[in-house]
Specification:
Rossmann fold, 5-stranded parallel β-sheet, 45% helix, alpha/beta
Length: 132
């Protein structure tokens, strides 16, 4: 897995076309391959079909089913770090997302270009290092 965001294959899961366009503009950099999905189910199919270095999920309204699907993706694709952009700044949501397999959870209101790239790089590094 390559922790350099200029060489990452990023799969963005976002179902809102306006938000997807904004996030794509933040993530679309030279050398970065950006793919999109509108659901976690579609993301699973893409993950099965092509190499992906990091999964970025925009989580609007988390529900138990969505969190469980994220946890299944984390188990089924253990080498792919998961970064969640949450629609809420609720820290309990962030902790829940981490408990369901994400390496990082960033409130969308804080998602500047610099911070998003930093979150992705750090998530890749955490995933690459063995847990003790």
């Amino acid at each position: 897995m390559d922790a350099d965001p200029q060489r990452l294959r990023v799969l963005l899961v976002e179902d809102n076309p306006g938000d997807a366009a904004l996030l794509r503009s933040m993530l679309d950099r030279p050398g970065m391959r950006l793919h999109g999905a509108v659901s976690l189910r579609e993301a699973r199919s893409i993950l099965q079909a092509q190499q992906t270095d990091v999964l970025v999920v925009d989580l609007h309204e988390p529900d138990p089913e969505t969190l469980e699907e994220m946890a299944r993706l984390a188990v089924d694709f253990p080498s792919v770090p998961l970064v969640v952009l949450a629609g809420s700044e609720d820290e309990s949501l962030g902790m829940s997302v981490l408990q369901h397999g994400a390496e990082d959870c960033l409130p969308k209101s804080d998602a500047s270009l610099r911070l998003l790239h930093r979150s992705i790089r750090f998530a890749c590094e955490r995933k690459r290092r063995p847990r003790t």
